Give the backbone structure.
Amino acid sequence: MEEVDHLAHERNKAQFDVEAMKIVWAGSRHAFEVSDRMSRLVASDPAFRKDNRATLSRKELFKNTLRKAAYAWKRIVELHLSEEEASKLRFFVDEPAYTDLHWGMFVPAIKGQGTDEQHQKWLTLAYKMQIIGCYAQTELGHGSNVQGLETTATFDPKSDEFIIHSPTLTSSKWWPGGLGKVSTHAVIYARLIIDGRDHGVHGFIVQLRSLDDHLPLPGITIGDIGMKFGNGAYNTMDNGVLQFNHVRIPRNQMLMRVSQVTREGKYVQSDVPRQLVYGTMVYVRQTIVSDASSALSRAVCVAVRYSAVRRQFGSQDGGPETQVIDYKTQQSRLFPLLASAYAFRFVGEWLKWLYMDVTKRLQANEFSTLPEAHACTAGLKSLTTTATADGIEECRKLCGGHGYLCSSGLPELFAVYVPACTYEGDNTVLLLQVARFLMKTVSQLGSGKQLVGTTAYMQRAEHLMQCTSDVRSAEDWLKPSFILEAFEARALRLAVTCAKNISKAPNPEEGFSQLSPDLAEAAVAHCQLIVVSKFIDKIQGDIDGMGLKEQLQALCGIYALSLLHKHLGEFLSTGCITPKQAALANEKLRSLYAKVRPNAVALVDAFNYTDHFLGSILGRYDGNVYPKLYEEAWKDPLNDSVVPDGYHEYVRPLLKQQLRTAKL
Ligand SMILES: CCCCCCCCCCCCCCCCCCCCCCC/C=C/C(=O)SCCNC(=O)CCNC(=O)[C@H](O)C(C)(C)COP(=O)(O)OP(=O)(O)OC[C@H]1O[C@@H](n2cnc3c(N)ncnc32)[C@H](O)[C@@H]1OP(=O)(O)O
Ligand SMILES: Cc1cc2nc3c(=O)[nH]c(=O)nc-3n(C[C@H](O)[C@H](O)[C@H](O)COP(=O)(O)OP(=O)(O)OC[C@H]3O[C@@H](n4cnc5c(N)ncnc54)[C@H](O)[C@@H]3O)c2cc1C
């Protein structure tokens, strides 16, 4: 039967070159080609089927993931895939697995915190997956407060070993992915004790299970922590619990780049800052920002396509009803999310550059940009994951009742995604880290110290503290200088107000604690400024292709002005803009929605997602939603029989009883 594209009329309206936008979205032609090839490879291979996850039991689900991971690895080896290709393949397989922690945290922890000899020994094995590792930091009693971890690593000079021990129930490692059932090794974090003295938390490589029979080694108790939120979803991962009972490891298994313990038991701190022990988290937070744009774009792709298919009300003279995407309320909820997906993509690209830059500097023992890298990765991780989790849920609502079906793909996407607000640092805890960085920066204002990077705008404090916006028309709100000034003034004024209020407290710590809700808002304002400014930078760079710049300008305007609208109280109360200017911003926003409307479907096509990856009947490329929803319903196991199991035991007796009652 001939395939019909129910969204063809939408695609024909596009005013820009979609193929060129695919390249901008991917980052480069090369990145696009890799991504396109890997997505097709996965989509065309039945071994990567994923439409049955919600109906599998935990054991079936987990075994299925083990099978996929082994098969993916086999394909990676057979096809000689590069690191870039392999990680794209993993992305399109779209299933959390122990391999994420092995490649995403265990390997980077050894790379970042290990010595050359340690790299030689452990990375050689890890790269071939001859050992499988995880990242065991969090404990039952402490996750956010890393300095509060209780596991101990006591140096025994007689045997030249560390004794790893869990002294309390709350010191049990709890949450590490891959730990529960698969990992043979872990990088664990424990307090280093030498001669009774506590030197704080350090990383150690510990073997957990036998490489012969996979049984836990002596002194180790280990298991899975149980089912998590949602069907399928993150339950493909074996998040684990681990206790040590005086387990001995050789001294050379402490990760010794940051500090060393000598044969004599002397603790030596190198010039490298202690915070490098937290380096793996900085790396992963940076990757999470790009992942946010992927998750949000996926939800938005579903919601935009379905909103163009779905019609409700407004039929005139028996004609078709209105497409729900034409309702202004639908646009005002959906288009800021579409704009955010693009915004997070570009800020993710920039953050990757920042991370690579700081890594190069660290290798050359230049540590000055580390605090900014920490603040940016922490803050942007927090901002983008919160917005993405909320955005996925909003997309579900934008799809009405059908969004609640698993076959929409949105419930599982939300369930898999939402822990990103917690893992790699609780989002509020991370905002407070940004706030500390901002308070330090504000305290340096007027000291003559040159401010660089993302806080360079504070250098113009004198102007930004007293300026009012010069916006006079709705059109003015499209000018980058007006947008930037409003966001800079708001961020600076919120930070300075916090600093002033902290200074009135009996001591800075008490003041910081009292002001923490305001500080978190100041941190959000600073991070939003970063995202807006990186979006503007992107547009001002080289962008080739018919109509691309216009579309990206519209999306950038929507991103910035919808935030301005959402946080209007802050912009007005800090006196950055007037109520009249706020009304003009809203007027501009409405006109931008109208500009994006005919391009909306093409703007999500530019993500280049296959139907396999989207996993959503509502988001199908061809828009053929209703027949497929109908077909899908019949596949549910409940429909295997006309009369359900349990009818004769539980329903029929009730019905009979009602009959008897009715006769009375
Ligand atoms: C089926 C599929 C099969 C496919 C198979 C394919 C196979 C191959 C494919 C290969 C593909 C690769 C795929 C890779 C995928 C990668 C994906 C990764 C997946 C990730 C999943 C996530 C899992 C989750 C993991 C975790 O959650 S790990 C635990 C995280 N924990 C936290 O984040 C804890 C949060 N807490 C903290 O960070 C800190 O404790 C704190 C910062 C909150 C406070 O710390 P502390 O008390 O020490 O600090 P202070 O406030 O006193 O500050 C001291 C100073 O230090 C500075 N600081 C703090 N942190 C840092 C830092 N990180 N860096 C630098 N500086 C830091 C502060 O600013 C202070 O500075 P100052 O003194 O100047 O003020
Ligand atoms: C799916 C998943 C996978 C994970 N994978 C791993 C892994 O592989 N390895 C690993 O080591 N860990 C892992 N974790 C653990 C994760 O890193 C922690 O759960 C996370 O860092 C949050 O810490 P917590 O659980 O201690 O939260 P808590 O700190 O107990 O947070 C509870 C509440 O207290 C608030 N709060 C805490 N401290 C402060 C403060 N100072 N000021 C204001 N409010 C505060 C928080 O905002 C939050 O609202 C994983 C977690 C999840 C959910």
